[in-house]
């Protein structure tokens, strides 16, 4: 039982990332019919929003302390972060400590802007082009964004810690009446899972219970009819592209304490997230979320040592094996609409 619970917990954080990225991918495909291979790069940009925000908060003024000398006899430099000078030492230190969650204040508007620019400047010219053209141009854009990040931040991963209060792990085993230290789970992974549920719930609530969302859902089902009603569905879809970019961005920003940001992390998640979308069903938002968590947990079980001893490398290919089985038996995916990907 403890092994079962531990593997489920281990799969939740990666499954959360898969679900959030796949949710944005499905929003774009469902509304615009575009296969966006740059979506992983949006996840990466979100993570570097957290890095940038953390660095901005750490900007400091430098003063020389003549009373203290270094080993060369020079006055010692004393660095005081500007936020500590503005808000006081305790409040400033707390703001710096909470840099990752606070980076959402930068990530959300920035990613919405990036989404608008991508859609209006590039994607709109490929609406009526074949999916192969869409894949090529968005994949090329992803490479460009990747190289820009590499040039600015370098090729090495950049550690970005979680707030001190969330460092350490929670003993699930002890809480469930089992032996201590049997089921240990990091606090920040719990935070990330809870955060993903909030974002997913917010997106579904927006689409389900707002007039704007209802029009978008109607446009996803029958774009031409909605247009004939005098509604400018294109502007709404552009806004949804920005929302999809923001979802990927906040997913990346909050994931930084789990996986240190690096320039190729977008590509690492991109292919897996497309597999998640295919398994869940192209255009199905519930399917994308379900498949994201399911495949994350399945990947966690496949990484167990005794399973890898029986089938070496199974943890690297298990998601693709599931995708092959789904495509052979149910081409439209677990929750895809009938006729989608079945022609």
UniProtKB/TrEMBL annotation:
Provide a GO biological process annotation: amino acid transport
Record-linked InterPro entries: ABC_transp_permease (IPR001851), BCAA_transport_permease (IPR052157)
Which one of the record's GO molecular function terms can you name? Answer: transmembrane transporter activity
Name the residues that span the membrane. Answer: 15-35, 42-62, 98-118, 191-216, 236-257, 269-298, 310-328
Q: Which residues form the signal peptide?
A: none
| Subcellular location field | Cell membrane
**Which CDD domains does the record associate with it?**
TM_PBP1_LivH_like (cd06582)
Q: What membrane topology is annotated for this entry? A: Multi-pass membrane protein
Q: Indicate what this protein is called per its UniProt record.
A: ABC transporter permease
Source species, please? Falsihalocynthiibacter arcticus
């Amino acid at each position: 039982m403890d092994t079962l619970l531990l593997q489920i917990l281990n799969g939740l954080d990666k499954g959360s990332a898969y679900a959030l990225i796949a949710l944005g991918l499905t929003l774009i495909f469902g509304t615009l019919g575009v296969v966006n291979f740059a979506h992983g790069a949006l996840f990466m940009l979100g993570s570097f929003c957290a890095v940038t925000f953390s660095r901005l908060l750490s900007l400091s003024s430098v003063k020389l302390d003549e009373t203290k000398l270094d080993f060369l006899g020079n006055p010692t430099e004393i660095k005081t972060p500007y936020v500590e000078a503005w808000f006081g030492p305790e409040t400033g230190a707390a703001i710096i400590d909470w840099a990752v969650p606070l980076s959402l204040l930068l990530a959300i508007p920035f990613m919405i802007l990036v989404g608008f620019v991508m859609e209006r400047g590039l994607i709109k010219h490929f609406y009526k082009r074949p999916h192969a053209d869409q894949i090529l141009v968005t994949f090329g854009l992803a490479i460009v964004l990747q190289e820009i990040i590499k040039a600015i931040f370098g090729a090495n991963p950049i550690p970005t810690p979680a707030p001190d209060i969330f460092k350490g792990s929670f003993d699930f085993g002890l809480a469930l009446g089992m032996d201590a230290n049997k089921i240990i789970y990091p606090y920040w992974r719990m935070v990330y899972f809870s955060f993903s549920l909030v974002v997913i719930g917010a997106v579904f609530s927006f689409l389900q219970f707002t007039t704007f969302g209802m029009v978008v859902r109607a446009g996803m089902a029958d774009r031409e009819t909605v247009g004939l009603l005098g509604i400018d569905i294109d502007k709404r879809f552009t806004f949804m592209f920005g929302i999809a970019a923001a979802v990927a961005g906040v997913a990346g920003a909050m994931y930084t304490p789990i996986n240190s940001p690096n320039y190729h992390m977008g590509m690492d998640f991109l292919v897996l997230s497309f597999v998640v979308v295919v398994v869940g069903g192209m255009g199905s938002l519930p399917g994308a979320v379900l498949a994201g968590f399911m495949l994350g947990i399945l990947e966690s079980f496949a990484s167990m040592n005794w399973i890898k001893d029986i089938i070496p490398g199974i943890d690297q290919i298990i998601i693709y094996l599931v995708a092959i089985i789904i495509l052979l038996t149910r081409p439209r995916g677990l929750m895809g609409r009938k006729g989608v990907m079945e022609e």
